[in-house]
Protein backbone atom coordinates (compact mmCIF):
# COMPACT_ATOMS: atom_id res chain seq x y z
CA UNK A 1 0.00 0.00 0.00
CA UNK A 2 1.23 3.53 -0.74
CA UNK A 3 0.16 6.98 0.37
CA UNK A 4 1.08 10.33 -1.16
CA UNK A 5 2.61 12.91 1.20
CA UNK A 6 4.04 16.27 0.11
CA UNK A 7 4.13 15.11 -3.48
CA UNK A 8 5.98 11.84 -2.78
CA UNK A 9 4.57 8.34 -2.47
CA UNK A 10 5.20 6.60 0.86
CA UNK A 11 5.25 2.83 0.86
CA UNK A 12 3.80 1.30 4.01
CA UNK A 13 5.94 -1.28 5.75
CA UNK A 14 4.18 -4.64 6.20
CA UNK A 15 3.62 -5.90 9.75
CA UNK A 16 4.63 -9.37 10.95
CA UNK A 17 1.58 -10.00 13.13
CA UNK A 18 -2.17 -10.23 12.70
CA UNK A 19 -4.44 -7.48 14.00
CA UNK A 20 -5.81 -9.87 16.63
CA UNK A 21 -2.30 -10.64 17.90
CA UNK A 22 -1.35 -6.95 18.10
CA UNK A 23 -4.63 -6.10 19.78
CA UNK A 24 -3.93 -8.65 22.50
CA UNK A 25 -0.43 -7.17 22.92
CA UNK A 26 -1.79 -3.66 23.50
CA UNK A 27 -4.43 -4.95 25.92
CA UNK A 28 -1.53 -6.39 27.95
CA UNK A 29 0.52 -3.15 27.59
CA UNK A 30 3.50 -5.20 26.40
CA UNK A 31 6.60 -3.00 26.27
CA UNK A 32 8.58 -5.48 24.18
CA UNK A 33 6.53 -4.43 21.14
CA UNK A 34 7.30 -0.72 21.53
CA UNK A 35 9.07 0.30 18.34
CA UNK A 36 7.69 -2.71 16.45
CA UNK A 37 4.31 -1.18 15.62
CA UNK A 38 2.01 1.70 16.56
CA UNK A 39 -1.63 1.75 17.61
CA UNK A 40 -3.52 4.45 15.69
CA UNK A 41 -6.96 5.24 17.09
CA UNK A 42 -9.39 6.33 14.39
CA UNK A 43 -11.92 7.91 16.76
CA UNK A 44 -9.44 10.22 18.53
CA UNK A 45 -6.83 10.64 15.81
CA UNK A 46 -3.87 9.79 18.06
CA UNK A 47 -1.12 7.18 17.80
CA UNK A 48 0.28 5.26 20.77
CA UNK A 49 2.94 2.79 21.76
CA UNK A 50 1.75 -0.77 22.44
CA UNK A 51 2.57 -0.26 26.15
CA UNK A 52 0.41 2.88 26.46
CA UNK A 53 -1.59 2.79 29.74
CA UNK A 54 -4.63 4.54 28.23
CA UNK A 55 -7.93 2.68 27.96
CA UNK A 56 -8.08 0.69 24.74
CA UNK A 57 -10.77 1.23 22.08
CA UNK A 58 -12.46 -1.59 20.21
CA UNK A 59 -10.38 -3.32 17.57
CA UNK A 60 -12.60 -1.96 14.81
CA UNK A 61 -11.54 1.58 15.79
CA UNK A 62 -7.82 0.81 15.56
CA UNK A 63 -5.37 0.85 12.71
CA UNK A 64 -1.92 -0.66 13.20
CA UNK A 65 1.05 0.95 11.45
CA UNK A 66 4.73 0.06 11.47
CA UNK A 67 6.44 3.44 11.79
CA UNK A 68 5.96 6.90 13.23
CA UNK A 69 6.39 8.43 9.77
CA UNK A 70 3.42 6.42 8.52
CA UNK A 71 1.25 7.52 11.44
CA UNK A 72 2.09 11.20 10.90
CA UNK A 73 1.54 10.88 7.15
CA UNK A 74 -1.93 9.49 7.83
CA UNK A 75 -2.77 12.50 10.00
CA UNK A 76 -2.51 10.92 13.47
CA UNK A 77 -1.21 12.96 16.43
CA UNK A 78 1.09 11.86 19.27
CA UNK A 79 -0.42 10.45 22.45
CA UNK A 80 0.31 12.75 25.39
CA UNK A 81 0.35 9.85 27.85
CA UNK A 82 2.82 7.38 26.34
CA UNK A 83 4.74 9.96 24.24
CA UNK A 84 5.80 7.82 21.26
CA UNK A 85 7.72 10.83 19.91
CA UNK A 86 10.09 10.64 22.90
CA UNK A 87 10.48 6.89 22.48
CA UNK A 88 11.48 7.23 18.83
CA UNK A 89 13.94 10.02 19.69
CA UNK A 90 15.61 7.71 22.18
CA UNK A 91 14.48 9.72 25.21
CA UNK A 92 13.16 8.10 28.38
CA UNK A 93 9.38 8.18 28.59
CA UNK A 94 9.45 7.67 32.37
CA UNK A 95 12.06 10.38 32.82
CA UNK A 96 9.98 12.90 30.91
CA UNK A 97 6.85 11.77 32.74
CA UNK A 98 8.54 12.49 36.08
CA UNK A 99 9.84 15.89 34.96
CA UNK A 100 6.44 16.95 33.62
CA UNK A 101 4.68 15.64 36.74
CA UNK A 102 7.06 17.57 39.02
CA UNK A 103 6.45 20.72 37.01
CA UNK A 104 2.67 20.33 37.38
CA UNK A 105 2.95 19.77 41.13
CA UNK A 106 5.11 22.87 41.55
CA UNK A 107 2.75 24.97 39.44
CA UNK A 108 -0.27 24.06 41.57
CA UNK A 109 0.35 21.60 44.44
CA UNK A 110 -3.24 21.91 45.67
CA UNK A 111 -4.46 20.29 42.43
CA UNK A 112 -3.38 16.91 43.76
CA UNK A 113 -5.37 16.05 46.85
CA UNK A 114 -3.97 12.54 47.17
CA UNK A 115 -1.52 10.05 45.73
CA UNK A 116 -4.39 8.51 43.77
CA UNK A 117 -5.23 11.83 42.12
CA UNK A 118 -1.57 12.32 41.20
CA UNK A 119 -1.40 8.84 39.65
CA UNK A 120 -4.61 9.47 37.72
CA UNK A 121 -3.28 12.76 36.33
CA UNK A 122 -0.19 10.91 35.06
CA UNK A 123 -2.26 8.10 33.55
CA UNK A 124 -0.46 5.41 35.56
CA UNK A 125 -1.20 3.11 38.49
CA UNK A 126 -0.23 4.02 42.05
CA UNK A 127 2.29 1.15 41.94
CA UNK A 128 3.93 2.62 38.85
CA UNK A 129 3.83 6.10 40.41
CA UNK A 130 5.62 4.84 43.51
CA UNK A 131 8.32 3.19 41.38
CA UNK A 132 8.72 6.34 39.28
CA UNK A 133 9.08 8.74 42.21
CA UNK A 134 11.30 6.37 44.20
CA UNK A 135 13.66 6.11 41.23
CA UNK A 136 13.86 9.81 40.39
CA UNK A 137 13.19 11.66 43.68
CA UNK A 138 14.19 8.97 46.21
CA UNK A 139 10.91 9.68 48.03
CA UNK A 140 7.47 8.16 48.35
CA UNK A 141 4.70 9.93 46.39
CA UNK A 142 3.16 11.21 49.65
CA UNK A 143 6.50 12.60 50.82
CA UNK A 144 7.07 14.30 47.47
CA UNK A 145 3.65 15.96 47.61
CA UNK A 146 4.24 17.16 51.17
CA UNK A 147 7.69 18.50 50.29
CA UNK A 148 6.38 20.48 47.34
CA UNK A 149 3.41 21.80 49.32
CA UNK A 150 5.77 23.02 52.05
CA UNK A 151 8.07 24.64 49.48
CA UNK A 152 5.09 26.45 47.96
CA UNK A 153 3.95 27.53 51.43
CA UNK A 154 7.41 28.93 52.20
CA UNK A 155 7.18 31.20 49.17
CA UNK A 156 3.67 32.36 50.07
CA UNK A 157 4.60 33.07 53.68
CA UNK A 158 7.46 35.32 52.59
CA UNK A 159 5.83 37.10 49.68
CA UNK A 160 2.19 37.42 50.76
CA UNK A 161 0.26 38.64 53.79
CA UNK A 162 -2.21 35.75 53.79
CA UNK A 163 -3.14 34.23 57.13
CA UNK A 164 -1.09 31.16 57.97
CA UNK A 165 -4.20 28.95 57.84
CA UNK A 166 -5.07 30.27 54.38
CA UNK A 167 -1.54 29.60 53.14
CA UNK A 168 -1.77 26.00 54.32
CA UNK A 169 -5.12 25.45 52.65
CA UNK A 170 -3.97 27.18 49.45
CA UNK A 171 -1.07 24.77 48.94
CA UNK A 172 -3.20 21.69 49.55
CA UNK A 173 -3.23 20.82 53.26
CA UNK A 174 -6.58 19.76 54.67
CA UNK A 175 -6.27 21.46 58.05
CA UNK A 176 -4.21 23.93 60.02
CA UNK A 177 -2.98 21.13 62.30
CA UNK A 178 -1.63 19.02 59.44
CA UNK A 179 0.01 22.09 57.89
CA UNK A 180 1.78 23.05 61.14
CA UNK A 181 2.88 19.46 61.74
CA UNK A 182 4.35 19.02 58.26
CA UNK A 183 5.92 22.49 58.26
CA UNK A 184 7.71 21.86 61.55
CA UNK A 185 8.91 18.45 60.32
CA UNK A 186 10.36 19.90 57.10
CA UNK A 187 11.63 23.31 58.25
CA UNK A 188 12.39 22.79 61.98
CA UNK A 189 10.42 25.93 62.86
CA UNK A 190 6.86 27.23 62.83
CA UNK A 191 5.28 29.02 59.85
CA UNK A 192 5.21 32.24 61.87
CA UNK A 193 8.94 31.98 62.67
CA UNK A 194 9.60 31.36 58.97
CA UNK A 195 7.75 34.53 58.02
CA UNK A 196 10.04 36.50 60.36
CA UNK A 197 13.05 35.47 58.23
CA UNK A 198 12.01 38.26 55.87
CA UNK A 199 13.82 40.81 58.05
CA UNK A 200 16.13 39.15 60.52
CA UNK A 201 19.76 38.37 61.25
CA UNK A 202 19.08 35.25 63.30
CA UNK A 203 16.76 32.27 63.66
CA UNK A 204 16.30 29.27 65.93
CA UNK A 205 15.69 25.69 64.81
CA UNK A 206 13.88 23.17 66.97
CA UNK A 207 15.97 19.99 66.90
CA UNK A 208 14.60 16.43 67.02
CA UNK A 209 14.82 14.79 70.44
CA UNK A 210 17.34 12.23 69.15
CA UNK A 211 19.55 14.74 67.32
CA UNK A 212 23.25 14.98 68.15
CA UNK A 213 25.58 17.39 66.34
CA UNK A 214 28.66 15.22 66.92
CA UNK A 215 28.57 13.47 63.55
CA UNK A 216 27.98 16.78 61.72
CA UNK A 217 30.97 18.36 63.45
CA UNK A 218 33.19 15.38 62.59
CA UNK A 219 32.14 15.62 58.95
CA UNK A 220 32.63 19.37 58.59
CA UNK A 221 35.89 19.36 60.57
CA UNK A 222 37.50 16.34 58.88
CA UNK A 223 40.30 18.80 58.13
CA UNK A 224 41.48 19.49 61.69
CA UNK A 225 43.23 22.69 60.63
CA UNK A 226 40.49 23.98 58.34
CA UNK A 227 40.73 27.58 57.19
CA UNK A 228 37.01 27.86 56.37
CA UNK A 229 35.18 26.52 59.45
CA UNK A 230 35.92 25.96 63.12
CA UNK A 231 34.30 24.78 66.33
CA UNK A 232 34.98 26.33 69.73
CA UNK A 233 33.23 26.57 73.10
CA UNK A 234 30.74 29.09 71.68
CA UNK A 235 29.69 27.02 68.67
CA UNK A 236 30.37 26.38 64.99
CA UNK A 237 31.50 29.13 62.61
CA UNK A 238 31.54 28.92 58.82
CA UNK A 239 31.32 31.27 55.85
CA UNK A 240 28.51 30.65 53.34
CA UNK A 241 27.98 31.99 49.85
CA UNK A 242 24.73 33.99 49.98
CA UNK A 243 23.57 35.67 46.76
CA UNK A 244 27.17 35.87 45.60
CA UNK A 245 28.64 37.29 48.83
CA UNK A 246 30.50 35.54 51.67
CA UNK A 247 28.50 35.67 54.90
CA UNK A 248 29.92 34.34 58.17
CA UNK A 249 27.41 32.44 60.29
CA UNK A 250 27.73 31.32 63.90
CA UNK A 251 25.75 28.29 65.00
CA UNK A 252 25.19 27.53 68.68
CA UNK A 253 23.51 24.25 69.65
CA UNK A 254 22.09 23.32 73.01
CA UNK A 255 20.03 20.30 73.97
CA UNK A 256 16.93 21.05 71.88
CA UNK A 257 17.65 24.06 69.66
CA UNK A 258 20.15 25.44 67.16
CA UNK A 259 20.52 29.22 67.10
CA UNK A 260 22.06 30.76 63.98
CA UNK A 261 23.28 34.37 63.76
CA UNK A 262 25.05 36.27 61.01
CA UNK A 263 26.31 39.71 60.04
CA UNK A 264 26.21 40.87 56.43
CA UNK A 265 29.37 42.38 54.93
CA UNK A 266 29.27 46.14 54.32
CA UNK A 267 29.43 45.69 50.55
CA UNK A 268 26.42 43.32 50.50
CA UNK A 269 23.75 44.28 47.97
CA UNK A 270 21.31 42.01 46.20
CA UNK A 271 18.31 42.10 43.90
CA UNK A 272 17.43 38.51 44.75
CA UNK A 273 13.80 38.06 45.79
CA UNK A 274 14.76 35.43 48.34
CA UNK A 275 15.56 36.98 51.74
CA UNK A 276 19.01 36.36 53.18
CA UNK A 277 17.53 34.54 56.17
CA UNK A 278 15.72 32.07 53.92
CA UNK A 279 18.91 31.20 52.04
CA UNK A 280 20.95 30.82 55.23
CA UNK A 281 18.22 28.65 56.75
CA UNK A 282 18.35 26.37 53.69
CA UNK A 283 22.10 25.93 53.98
CA UNK A 284 22.10 25.40 57.76
CA UNK A 285 19.48 22.66 57.41
CA UNK A 286 21.86 20.94 54.98
CA UNK A 287 24.90 21.39 57.20
CA UNK A 288 23.13 19.73 60.14
CA UNK A 289 21.46 17.01 58.06
CA UNK A 290 18.00 17.98 59.29
CA UNK A 291 16.41 16.96 55.98
CA UNK A 292 17.21 13.31 56.77
CA UNK A 293 14.19 11.03 57.23
CA UNK A 294 15.52 9.26 60.32
CA UNK A 295 12.04 8.26 61.49
CA UNK A 296 11.33 6.59 58.15
CA UNK A 297 14.61 4.68 58.41
CA UNK A 298 13.74 3.51 61.91
CA UNK A 299 10.21 2.52 60.90
CA UNK A 300 11.55 0.41 58.03
CA UNK A 301 13.96 -1.28 60.43
CA UNK A 302 11.00 -2.80 62.27
CA UNK A 303 10.28 -4.97 59.22
CA UNK A 304 13.83 -5.22 57.85
CA UNK A 305 16.34 -7.38 59.73
CA UNK A 306 19.34 -5.86 57.93
CA UNK A 307 18.33 -2.30 58.82
CA UNK A 308 17.55 -3.36 62.38
CA UNK A 309 21.00 -4.91 62.82
CA UNK A 310 22.68 -1.85 61.30
CA UNK A 311 20.85 0.51 63.67
CA UNK A 312 21.80 -1.70 66.62
CA UNK A 313 25.49 -1.35 65.77
CA UNK A 314 25.27 2.32 64.84
CA UNK A 315 22.20 4.39 65.65
CA UNK A 316 20.48 6.22 62.80
CA UNK A 317 22.35 9.35 61.70
CA UNK A 318 21.18 12.74 60.49
CA UNK A 319 23.33 12.89 57.35
CA UNK A 320 25.18 16.23 57.19
CA UNK A 321 25.71 17.78 53.79
CA UNK A 322 27.85 20.51 52.31
CA UNK A 323 26.40 24.02 52.15
CA UNK A 324 26.06 23.74 48.36
CA UNK A 325 26.46 20.99 45.73
CA UNK A 326 29.66 22.46 44.29
CA UNK A 327 31.52 22.13 47.59
CA UNK A 328 30.55 18.46 47.71
CA UNK A 329 31.63 17.88 44.10
CA UNK A 330 34.99 19.53 44.78
CA UNK A 331 35.55 17.26 47.79
CA UNK A 332 34.58 14.19 45.74
CA UNK A 333 37.01 15.06 42.93
CA UNK A 334 39.78 15.75 45.44
CA UNK A 335 39.08 12.45 47.19
CA UNK A 336 39.30 10.26 44.10
CA UNK A 337 41.65 7.32 44.79
CA UNK A 338 43.46 8.90 47.77
CA UNK A 339 43.08 8.52 51.53
CA UNK A 340 41.06 10.86 53.73
CA UNK A 341 44.09 12.52 55.35
CA UNK A 342 45.68 13.51 52.05
CA UNK A 343 42.30 14.62 50.68
CA UNK A 344 41.87 16.97 53.66
CA UNK A 345 45.38 18.34 53.04
CA UNK A 346 44.56 19.07 49.38
CA UNK A 347 41.26 20.70 50.32
CA UNK A 348 43.02 22.98 52.78
CA UNK A 349 45.63 23.91 50.16
CA UNK A 350 42.88 24.68 47.61
CA UNK A 351 41.04 26.94 50.06
CA UNK A 352 44.27 28.75 50.89
CA UNK A 353 45.02 29.20 47.19
CA UNK A 354 41.60 30.28 45.90
CA UNK A 355 39.27 30.91 48.85
CA UNK A 356 38.55 34.63 49.43
CA UNK A 357 39.77 35.96 52.79
CA UNK A 358 37.13 37.22 55.23
CA UNK A 359 38.13 39.47 58.10
CA UNK A 360 41.58 39.96 59.56
CA UNK A 361 42.41 36.53 60.98
CA UNK A 362 43.00 34.68 57.72
CA UNK A 363 39.53 33.09 57.85
CA UNK A 364 38.39 32.06 54.38
CA UNK A 365 35.36 30.83 52.50
CA UNK A 366 35.43 27.74 50.31
CA UNK A 367 36.07 28.96 46.74
CA UNK A 368 33.12 29.08 44.39
CA UNK A 369 33.21 27.81 40.81
CA UNK A 370 34.18 31.32 39.69
CA UNK A 371 37.42 31.31 41.71
CA UNK A 372 38.41 27.79 40.66
CA UNK A 373 37.58 28.37 36.98
CA UNK A 374 40.08 31.26 36.99
CA UNK A 375 42.96 28.97 38.04
CA UNK A 376 45.57 27.45 35.75
CA UNK A 377 46.33 23.71 36.11
CA UNK A 378 49.92 24.39 37.20
CA UNK A 379 48.64 26.34 40.21
CA UNK A 380 46.95 23.17 41.45
CA UNK A 381 49.81 20.82 40.58
CA UNK A 382 52.08 23.17 42.54
CA UNK A 383 50.04 22.31 45.66
CA UNK A 384 50.28 18.54 44.99
CA UNK A 385 47.19 17.99 42.85
CA UNK A 386 47.74 15.46 40.07
CA UNK A 387 47.64 16.84 36.53
CA UNK A 388 44.43 14.98 35.72
CA UNK A 389 42.70 16.01 38.95
CA UNK A 390 43.62 19.65 38.33
CA UNK A 391 42.10 19.48 34.86
CA UNK A 392 38.93 17.77 36.10
CA UNK A 393 38.37 20.34 38.84
CA UNK A 394 38.94 23.37 36.62
CA UNK A 395 36.86 21.80 33.84
CA UNK A 396 33.87 21.29 36.14
CA UNK A 397 34.17 24.84 37.48
CA UNK A 398 34.25 26.26 33.95
CA UNK A 399 31.17 24.22 33.01
CA UNK A 400 29.30 25.80 35.93
CA UNK A 401 30.47 29.35 35.19
CA UNK A 402 29.50 28.99 31.51
CA UNK A 403 26.02 27.75 32.43
CA UNK A 404 26.59 24.32 30.88
CA UNK A 405 26.17 22.70 34.31
CA UNK A 406 23.64 23.89 36.92
CA UNK A 407 24.12 21.87 40.09
CA UNK A 408 21.40 23.69 42.02
CA UNK A 409 18.80 22.85 39.38
CA UNK A 410 19.94 19.24 39.18
CA UNK A 411 19.42 18.97 42.94
CA UNK A 412 15.78 20.03 42.49
CA UNK A 413 14.99 17.42 39.84
CA UNK A 414 15.65 13.78 39.02
CA UNK A 415 18.46 11.78 40.63
CA UNK A 416 18.74 9.77 37.41
CA UNK A 417 19.23 12.92 35.34
CA UNK A 418 21.65 14.42 37.88
CA UNK A 419 23.87 11.33 37.88
CA UNK A 420 23.87 11.14 34.09
CA UNK A 421 24.70 14.84 33.66
CA UNK A 422 27.56 14.60 36.15
CA UNK A 423 28.98 11.47 34.53
CA UNK A 424 29.04 13.24 31.17
CA UNK A 425 31.78 15.51 32.55
CA UNK A 426 35.41 14.51 32.09
CA UNK A 427 36.81 12.88 35.21
CA UNK A 428 33.42 12.23 36.84
CA UNK A 429 32.46 8.59 37.32
CA UNK A 430 29.69 6.87 39.30
CA UNK A 431 31.44 7.20 42.68
CA UNK A 432 32.03 10.95 42.34
CA UNK A 433 28.53 11.54 40.96
CA UNK A 434 26.75 9.52 43.64
CA UNK A 435 28.79 11.04 46.45
CA UNK A 436 27.70 14.46 45.17
CA UNK A 437 24.08 13.32 45.03
CA UNK A 438 24.37 12.16 48.66
CA UNK A 439 26.32 14.97 50.27
CA UNK A 440 25.58 17.88 47.97
CA UNK A 441 22.05 17.33 46.67
CA UNK A 442 20.35 15.36 49.43
CA UNK A 443 19.10 12.34 47.49
CA UNK A 444 18.19 9.66 50.01
CA UNK A 445 18.83 6.38 48.20
CA UNK A 446 22.38 6.57 46.83
CA UNK A 447 25.10 3.92 46.84
CA UNK A 448 28.60 5.33 46.15
CA UNK A 449 29.82 2.22 44.35
CA UNK A 450 33.61 2.25 44.21
CA UNK A 451 34.03 3.53 47.76
CA UNK A 452 36.77 1.59 49.53
CA UNK A 453 35.37 2.30 52.99
CA UNK A 454 31.93 1.06 52.00
CA UNK A 455 33.41 -2.16 50.61
CA UNK A 456 35.25 -2.80 53.89
CA UNK A 457 32.20 -1.96 56.01
CA UNK A 458 29.99 -4.33 53.99
CA UNK A 459 32.55 -7.10 54.30
CA UNK A 460 32.47 -6.72 58.08
CA UNK A 461 28.70 -6.25 58.30
CA UNK A 462 27.91 -9.39 56.29
CA UNK A 463 31.01 -11.26 57.59
CA UNK A 464 32.27 -11.98 54.08
CA UNK A 465 35.56 -13.72 53.29
CA UNK A 466 36.60 -10.90 50.96
CA UNK A 467 35.58 -7.37 50.08
CA UNK A 468 32.69 -7.17 47.60
CA UNK A 469 33.16 -5.78 44.10
CA UNK A 470 30.96 -3.10 42.52
CA UNK A 471 28.21 -5.46 41.32
CA UNK A 472 28.14 -7.30 44.65
CA UNK A 473 27.96 -3.99 46.52
CA UNK A 474 24.84 -3.00 44.57
CA UNK A 475 23.22 -6.29 45.58
CA UNK A 476 24.31 -6.11 49.22
CA UNK A 477 22.91 -2.58 49.56
CA UNK A 478 19.48 -3.43 48.10
CA UNK A 479 17.97 -4.43 51.48
CA UNK A 480 18.56 -0.85 52.69
CA UNK A 481 16.52 0.79 49.93
CA UNK A 482 14.98 3.40 49.95
CA UNK A 483 17.35 4.66 52.66
CA UNK A 484 20.72 3.68 51.20
CA UNK A 485 22.25 7.11 51.81
CA UNK A 486 21.60 6.75 55.54
CA UNK A 487 22.72 3.13 55.47
CA UNK A 488 25.98 4.07 53.73
CA UNK A 489 26.62 6.75 56.35
CA UNK A 490 25.96 4.26 59.16
CA UNK A 491 28.31 1.73 57.57
CA UNK A 492 31.05 4.36 57.31
CA UNK A 493 30.47 5.28 60.95
CA UNK A 494 30.74 1.62 61.98
CA UNK A 495 34.29 1.59 60.60
CA UNK A 496 35.21 4.70 62.59
CA UNK A 497 33.89 3.18 65.80
CA UNK A 498 35.86 -0.04 65.28
CA UNK A 499 39.04 1.88 64.57
Automatic annotation (TrEMBL):
UniProt KW keywords: Activator, DNA damage, DNA repair, DNA-binding, Metal-binding, Methyltransferase, Transcription, Transcription regulation, Transferase, Zinc
CDD domains assigned: ENDO3c (cd00056)
Entry annotated with the keyword Cell membrane: no
Catalytic activity, EC: 3.2.2.21
Enzymatic reactions: Hydrolysis of alkylated DNA, releasing 3-methyladenine, 3-methylguanine, 7-methylguanine and 7-methyladenine
Superkingdom of source: Bacteria
Name of the featured protein: DNA-3-methyladenine glycosylase II
HTH araC/xylS-type domain: residues covered: 99-197
Enzyme class at the top of the EC tree: hydrolase
Amino acid sequence: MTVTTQGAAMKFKPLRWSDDFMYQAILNHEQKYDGKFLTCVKSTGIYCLPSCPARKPLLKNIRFLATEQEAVAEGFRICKRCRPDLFYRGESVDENLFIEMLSRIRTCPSSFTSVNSLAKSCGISTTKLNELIRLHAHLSPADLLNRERINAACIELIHSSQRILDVGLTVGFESEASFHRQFAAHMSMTPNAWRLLNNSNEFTLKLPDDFSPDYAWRYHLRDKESLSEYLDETGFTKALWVHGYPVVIHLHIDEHTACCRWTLPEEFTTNNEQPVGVEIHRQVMLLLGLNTDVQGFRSSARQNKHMARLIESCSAIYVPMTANPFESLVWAIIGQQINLTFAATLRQALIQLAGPVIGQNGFRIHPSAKEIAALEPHQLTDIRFSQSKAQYLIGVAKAIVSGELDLEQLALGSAVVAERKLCELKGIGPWTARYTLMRGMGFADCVPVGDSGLYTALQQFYQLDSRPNAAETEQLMKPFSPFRTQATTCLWESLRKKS
